[in-house]
Amino acid sequence: MTVARTEPLRTRAVEGLPADFVWGAATSAYQIEGAVAEDGRTPSIWDTFSHTPGAVANGDHGDAACDHYHRMPEDVALLADLGLDAYRFSLSWPRIQPGGKGPANARGLAFYDRLVDELLARDITPWVTLYHWDLPQELEDEGGWPVRDTAHRFAEYAGIAADALGDRVTHWITLNEPYCSAMLGYYVGVHAPGRRHFPDFTKAAHHLLLGHGLAAEQVRARAARPAEVGITVNPVVAQPFSDAPEDVEAARRADALGTRLYLDPLVHGRYPEDLLADLAPHRAEPPVQDGDLRTIAAPLDFLGVNYYFRDVVRPGDEPRGYRSVPQTDRPSTAMPWEIYPQGLTDLLVRISREYPGLPLYITENGAAFDDTRAAVDATGQIQDPERIAFLAEHLQAIGRARGAGADVRGYFCWSLMDNFEWAYGYAKRFGLVHVDYATQRRTPKASAEWLRDTAAACRQQ
């Protein structure tokens, strides 16, 4: 079921969010850009996967997406109208370095040059994500992330990006959600490249983390301005279905594979012992070489945290050992994902205690609802009270986490606009701005105005 509200929430400052809190919105390259074969861009794994019959709902793909490649100034104007401080976007690796090797593609880089300049001209800070899942297909053909060389190719690409944009960009995110890239792409198979081999998942996870460390070195060394470098993770907020020992054990395993597999090496420079014990019977231990963990654990300037829902689990089949239990009696979004703001508070407080000293930013949080142009009102605005309620409740959850000591410094709403939602195609709408995919017309929703006014109220308190 979905949350139902008949009246929009009154805009007010969110308790616990300071005046210098960063307000932003987020997108990713493949989900919005389109122009997949223009100006030298070559295919990514998501081009291949989305054109594989049965891989994506309704046979959708990102060939056109939101046509952001041609409509970028209009979209930056939307950001400015929202009064946002920052915009988190990703670079398309195969647009900047076709094939994942060799020299930079000047025509591809020129697009991001224009985007960064457009943002700065409107006093919007660019936050660049180097990798949001669009591995060049040629590198996948050579083995993809389970192959160690891919981490080194990623570092080379990061250096190219830093050379080109590091005179203006100061906030860099190496990877978005390595859990999804590794688990969903190489074991579950529902994301590109669609492989289903458990040891490939752990190899991919390790090489993604190694790629992060190597890329961070390149950005810091080659950016012309001092660079703040971080990574975005989406920790699995695992809770046992009951107090039964087997359910508690399932939650431990989910936490090991979905949270500590990434945060422990990033912050503590080691993989958890219980995780390694779980992986050993499946010959799936991370392929660590000398120096890897030191590279991975280089100090972070910040940690990006993505949160959408918690995961209630029970025992499941090996090798994972757990399975998710849908909470059908709870309010949910259109995905359908359970709406559970307390999970965000709990997650942020936990990170601040177990991985201390890291400035935190919510780099994605948002919700899909069935809002369409049919919901337009007499003023021409699309009413989405469920999304407003979701955003309000999760911003309040961040305020509570700050009150408990979590150093949360900003919030990026997912997403600026409706877009290609991976394996769900265009069926799910997360945007603050509605996109009519037939005409590419953009129409701000009521939630866009609400977020603008809420941010303004917080700045003035």
UniProtKB/TrEMBL annotation:
Q: What is its EC number?
A: 3.2.1.21
Q: Which family does it belong to?
A: Belongs to the glycosyl hydrolase 1 family.
Does the keyword field hold Hydrolase? yes
Q: State the PROSITE patterns in the record.
A: GLYCOSYL_HYDROL_F1_1, GLYCOSYL_HYDROL_F1_2
The record's GO CC annotations read: cytosol
What keywords appear on the UniProt entry? Answer: Carbohydrate metabolism, Cellulose degradation, Glycosidase, Hydrolase, Polysaccharide degradation
Residues the record lists as binding substrate = Q31, H132, N176, Y308, W414, E421, W422
Output the GO biological process annotations, alphabetical, semicolon-separated.
cellulose catabolic process
Protein name in the entry: Beta-glucosidase
Stored InterPro entries? GH, GH_1_N_CS, Glyco_hydro_1, Glyco_hydro_1_AS, Glyco_hydro_1_beta-glucosidase
Report which reactions are catalysed by this protein: Hydrolysis of terminal, non-reducing beta-D-glucosyl residues with release of beta-D-glucose
Indicate whether NAD appears among the record's keywords.
no
Q: Where is the active site?
A: E177, E364
Name the domain of life this protein comes from. Answer: Bacteria
Q: Which GO terms describe its molecular function?
A: beta-glucosidase activity
